[in-house]
Amino acid sequence: MFSSDRYSILAIPSLISVAISVIGFILMSINKIKIGGILYIVGCILFVPIGLVGVVGVKKAMNEVKEQKFIEQEYGSN
Question: What predicted TM-score, i.e. pTM, was given to this entire model?
Answer without folding.
Answer: 0.71
